[in-house]
Specification:
Strand order of the largest sheet: 4-3-5
Number of helices: 3
Largest sheet: 3 strands, mixed
Structural class: alpha+beta
Strand content: 15-25%
Order of helices and strands: HHHEEEEE
Length: about 140
């Protein structure tokens, strides 16, 4: 295990404070507050070390750059916002999905990603299929 540096501490803390998987660029932006002048190359180098040491997990979604989250959480899934592209942890699971596999196949693990809009990006709640409310013009 390598020594704990100021950069590594800031990177780890940025991910912990976000409480969601972060892209390396998001980690850089958050960690720069504590370590001005931090570079993206240093972030990547430290992410690799933290993953190798088992402190972080890489979250890989199809067609996306890996995001990073703190290791050790219970089994969970992810939600990706289609507007802002942020990824959030979903602490729920539909359970055993073995019945969905073709007959004779053995399911060893599963990963689910939900896609939609986060609360920051979603429109005000309205019933599915309901028309958007039109504002009347004042006369």
């Amino acid at each position: 295990m390598e020594r704990n540096t100021r950069q590594r501490t800031a990177i780890r803390q940025a991910i912990a404070d976000a409480a969601r998987p972060l892209l390396p660029q998001e980690i850089l932006q958050a960690a720069e507050v504590e370590v001005p002048g931090l570079s993206l190359a240093t972030v990547y180098r430290n992410l690799r070390t933290l993953v190798d040491d088992g402190e972080l997990l890489a979250v890989t979604l199809p067609g996306e750059v890996a995001r990073y989250e703190i290791a050790g959480a219970e089994h969970h899934h992810h939600f990706q916002c289609l507007s802002c592209q942020r990824v959030f942890e979903v602490h729920a699971c539909p359970g055993n999905l073995a019945s969905l596999a073709p007959q004779g196949f053995v399911v060893e693990r599963h990963e689910l990603t939900l896609y939609g809009r986060c609360t920051d990006c979603s429109e005000p709640a309205r019933a599915p299929g309901a028309p958007k409310t039109l504002r009347s013009k004042s006369r």
